[in-house]
Design goal:
Chain lengths: 200, 113
């Protein structure tokens, strides 16, 4: 899954005056970049930040060199959804240290689409915990159907992931444009009716 | 990961400013060069590269990715150029969730994919 950072810049039309973002969140290898690439109008781009061991916090290992750095990558894509509006899709691992590093990434977002591999449901627990306690943003869950994945019912997964009754859970093939778009649509529909909207 | 090998630390490149004067620039913020502004008299290499990159409209994240620089660094460079009038912010900064009207536009666009 190579990211095309060779300079193939495609400028936005001058009519665009608003940008919005959706975070595509999930554990490593769950298909975030695949989903972004299937719907993005540009080849997914990658940007990287380095952090020192001091900011790694709970993940720091005793004996590690004090100056050790970790690179955290973020892949993203873009969809010009109307002549005036562009939507960015930012792929983020979603663990605690990531939110610490990318301050402001969650601010003003439509919401998060959480990709889950049903073979490794437990990998998602920290992601959900961070979304709920830290961002408070609406989210929907997309089950990326890998071959050989156990065929849990959405009710079983809702219980296993301790999700609210109104949190959308959809099956998704991240390689498929229509399927990925449908997952994003479910999230935006959910965001339109999200309780917090009543307060704004 | 080219910037990892950069011999100069980010705080040197940004003249020691860790916190941009504008706290409104986000990865999705849209930037474009002000065509009417004269070019800076003594731009740094990074400033010149960013201005060249933003000859058309791009988000800050795209500019950072193409320049192979961390978003956090490009935010600082961009905010300086915004303050001096060389770079324009084309999208209003958003601190609250998008409005219902904006969400409907996004929904319409996604349904057309």
């Amino acid at each position: 899954m190579a990211s095309a950072n060779s300079d193939q810049r495609q400028y936005l039309p001058a009519t665009v005056a608003q940008s919005v973002k959706i975070l595509v969140v999930g554990a490593f290898g769950v298909g975030k970049t695949t989903l972004i690439g299937s719907v993005s109008e540009i080849a997914p781009l990658r940007t990287e930040e380095t952090m020192t061991s001091a900011s790694v916090g709970v993940d720091s290992l005793a004996g590690l060199d004090e100056k050790a750095t970790t690179t955290v990558a973020m892949d993203f894509g873009r969809i010009t959804v109307s002549p005036e509006v562009v939507l960015y899709l930012f792929g983020t691992p979603g663990q605690r240290r990531f939110w610490d590093l990318w301050e402001g990434l969650a601010e003003g977002a439509v919401g998060a689409l959480v990709l889950v591999d049903t073979r490794r449901v437990e990998d998602s627990f920290e992601v959900f915990d961070q979304l709920e306690t830290r961002t408070g943003m609406p989210f929907a869950v997309a089950l990326n159907d890998f071959p050989g994945a156990p065929n849990y019912s959405t009710d079983q997964l809702r219980e296993a992931l301790d999700l609210l009754p109104d949190t959308p859970i959809i099956h998704c093939d991240a390689r498929n444009k229509e399927s990925s778009a449908q997952a994003l649509i479910s999230l935006v529909e959910h965001a339109l009716h999200y309780p917090a909207k009543a307060l704004t | 990961m080219e910037y990892n090998d950069h011999p100069v630390r980010p705080y040197v490149l940004t003249s020691g400013r860790a916190h941009p004067s504008r706290n409104t620039i986000r990865p999705e913020t849209l930037l474009v060069v002000d065509p009417d502004a004269p070019p800076p008299v003594t731009p740094t290499r990074q400033q010149r590269a960013l201005l060249e990159m933003c000859g058309g409209m791009l988000s800050l994240a795209e500019a950072a990715a193409y320049l192979r620089l961390p978003v956090s660094l490009v935010v600082v460079i961009a905010s300086d150029l915004v303050d001096t009038g060389h770079l324009q912010i084309r999208s209003a900064p958003r601190h609250s969730p998008p409005s219902t009207e904006l969400l409907e536009k996004v929904l319409d666009g996604l349904r057309k994919l």
